[in-house]
């Protein structure tokens, strides 16, 4: 079962931060926050659910203001570093068409002690959800499509 | 002055466009531009209170003064993640 | 960068729970908690730090009461399920000799909404640290070895 | 009765053994066994207050009565993760 193990530590200077149309590989996100001085790493993955408000979902389509979203990610990292002692922070958000089960967003944080990694990761994903210029269009089974109602974008 | 406007998500549907250029009087604000956008695309009025604007990748308030060549994003409520 | 993506959803009925001597592959742990009805997954990885109380660490050796530790993991899952709405829970702890940077423990929780996954994952790792019959022997650079001082084991 | 005792980590070092069998009077408790262990391995005395015991994979208190063939784990303070 562990035979497919591969090196997931690659020694980058900082975590990946990007908006991408390609599938997100959680192993690559994790690798980007590995750090020999870190004792704990927390990763959050958001995936496309098969139901939304009781209706069967076929897939999602994300629209994004890419340059602004990448800039927002950098601001979130700065804000994380002001609040907690963390080693590396990675944030990747996908856009375009996604199927059920696919990863739409990944956040990973490494830190010396786990409390910081948990708090920073939670803060980062909460902030991403409210402040990134990213919009979700839901495609239900049967073909109905609509933009998911969200909250007014905040800094 | 000329500013470039980019529409996203529901705003893109309402404007039926990815983006366009507006020519405005000097010292126009983002609020002035918003009124022009609603005039050009009446479908945008319904969402005008929930939309926010960016200028050159910064989130701004409607009082913000515009300058020549600014790039303005029209950003409906977000539901990322 | 994303080219090495591989299917990480395998549709197991429940998350992996095991004590193992072999290297832990985070991708396999994640795969075991994937669930089409989950919108969020949180994973914690504990890794061997290169320093401990200011001293350079060469590696760790874990001793474990394996059968009891696996039973404790099942009790932790039950306890998690009583407290939060979660889909799948995975816990893997390694024993034997580990080098700096290697993963000693992995916990992953999937749930419909992310708040449950964060709380359940944090609770599970905190409980693992205090209640699993597992002991850590530190090997410092220079050769000094000693059992890491811990807390009285609790249920 | 006979019970099997397993030593872990620092307890293994103190007993210089992975495990051994103790023969005890009927109705002995875990606390009685603990006293026997300290008699057999004086190095164990120093840690006897911080150690906990399992019987057949269950964490137990020292008042717990032992039965024939029980498997007892001697568990020093833990620092997993």
How far apart the termini of chain B lie comes to: 37 Å
Number of domains of chain B: 1
- Annotated CATH architecture of chain A: Alpha-Beta Complex
Q: Which residues of chain B sit in consecutive blocks of at least 5 with pLDDT less than 50?
A: none
Count of individual beta strands of chain A: 9
Q: How would a textbook summarize the main sheet of chain B? A: 5 strands, mixed
Query: What is the name of the CATH superfamily of chain A?
Result: Molybdopterin biosynthesis MoaE subunit
CATH superfamily of chain B: Beta-grasp domain
What does it look like?
The complex is a heterotetramer, with 2 copies of chain A (155 residues) and 2 copies of chain B (81 residues). Chain A is α+β, with helices and mostly antiparallel strands. Helix content of chain A is 28%, strand content 35%. Chain A is elongated, with a radius of gyration of 16 Å. With 81 residues, chain B is an alpha+beta fold. Helix content of chain B is 22%, strand content 28%. Chain B has 2 helices and 5 strands. Chain B has helices at residues 9-15, 30-40, and strands spanning 2-7, 19-23, 52-55, 58-60, 71-75. In chain B, a hairpin with a 2-residue loop joins strand 3 (52-55) and strand 4 (58-60). The radius of gyration of chain B is 12 Å and the shape is globular. Chain B starts with a strand and ends in a 6-residue tail after the last strand. Chain A binds chain C through residues 1-2, 4-6, 8-9, 16, 20, 22-28, 30, 34, 36-51, 100-101, 112, 114, 117-118, 121-122, 125, and chain C through 1-2, 4-6, 8-9, 16, 20, 22-28, 30, 34, 36-51, 100-101, 112, 114, 117-118, 121-122, 125.
